[in-house]
Amino acid sequence: MSADARRPLIAGNWKMHKTIAETRALLRELRAYPLPAGIDVVVAPPFTALVAASEELHGTAIGLGAQTMHEGEHGAYTGEISPLMLHEIGVRWVILGHSERRATCNESDAGVNRKVRSALAHGLTPIVAVGESEGEHRRGETHAIVVAQTRAAFANIEPDEVARCVVAYEPIWAIGTGLIDDPANANAVIAEIRASVAGLERARILYGGSMKGDNAAALMAQSDIDGGLIGGASLKAESFLAVIEAAAPRAGAT
Ligand code: PGA
């Protein structure tokens, strides 16, 4: 693996935001901006906007992600979207196991593992989200929870394949709240995640949870934080670009 295997990655998780027209408008703003060298940027719009997003991003360096997928290629799964369908339209990244899906769509650790394997088999890079709830955080269970989630997500996957994946550590209590984890603490948790599965020492591990332009530099200064999974701040060009700019000094440093 090349020396820049852990080059910074800033990924925007748009969640259930943006119509097709809004998607086109935001991506036109983003693609007009000269992105700093040495950073990977990904956006994950909702399914309905992915085809339009793929058109807008054609020929740019901005990667296209989906927010979830089914692990199967096709079949009687009403409402689901397969990795073949995503790959066909230019999607190359997929967020898997986001805490909102674990909480509201019954996503299990075993299901996340099936999806990670399927994504890898279909040429999609998984961005696997792990994180503890506020109660688990207060009870000092963070380490046990995130390590268990991480080991389950990558169970029986070869280290070289694991190294191609991305993990996002997102403390649930920090998502959408405006509160970030203390950068040094987040770094320590991410170091534990990195040490928990063979191959993750070469993989990118992101922080997520209220990461914005004004706190991104402190997070990106940490040794084990390779980027961010950005929700709210990814919905406007100005705030998303502020995070990308804050990550720029990290480019080439790993
Ligand atoms: P937030 O969301 O940046 O709005 O906290 C992050 C996420 O849920 O991925």
The CATH architecture of one domain is: Alpha-Beta Barrel
Topology order in helix (H) and strand (E) letters? EHEHEHEHHEHHHEHEHEH
Q: Low-confidence segments, ≥5 residues, pLDDT <50?
A: none
Give the overall form: globular
* CATH homologous superfamily placement of one domain: Aldolase class I
Features:
globular; eight-stranded parallel β-barrel; TIM Barrel; alpha/beta; binds 2-phosphoglycolic acid; 254 residues; 11 helices; single chain; 39% helix
Textual characterization of the structure:
By secondary structure, the chain is α/β, with parallel strands linked by helices. It has a domain at 68-226: Aldolase class I (TIM Barrel, Alpha-Beta Barrel), CATH 3.20.20. 39% of the residues lie in helices and 15% in strands. The protein has helices at 20-31, 50-57, 83-88, 99-104, 109-121, 134-138, 142-153, 159-162, 183-196, 213-220, 237-247; strands spanning 9-13, 40-44, 62-66, 93-96, 125-130, 166-169, 204-208, 227-230. β1 (9-13), α1 (20-31) and β2 (40-44) form a beta-alpha-beta unit. α7 (142-153) packs across α9 and α10 (213-220) runs parallel beside α11. The chain is globular, with a radius of gyration of 17 Å. The mean pLDDT is 96. 2-phosphoglycolic acid (PGA) binds next to β8.
